[in-house]
Amino acid sequence: MRVLGSAVLAMEFFVMSFAILIAKNDHSAVALIAGAILAILFLLTPGLLKKKYGWVIGSILQLLMISYAFVVPSMAFIGVLFTGLWIAAIVVGRKGEAFRAALLAEAEKARGAEKP
Fold first, then answer.
1. Containing domain of residue 19, as a range?
2. What is the DSSP letter of 72?
3. 14 domain-assigned
């Protein structure tokens, strides 16, 4: 789950960096600074995904990315796309972790049965 979430957040860092480049000619310094802060948060948040609050912060960042569409209108579509990827990372990651736990439990059970 962490690997998928980290990959989504890392990709969003690059997307936000390019969005700042798009916005630099037409918008104020406040919009650029907000985009830079958002990009830095996308870069730092994967380290927090070990805890539940990291996932909450990541979800909030998804909403902030969509709201950056007020500065760069194409970010609305891209933000929705990445929010879908974020949700998929959570869903697929949980299924993968459950499957892995079942395999480990099965392997442990098989090892216990082999030992007399």
1. 2-90
2. S
3. yes
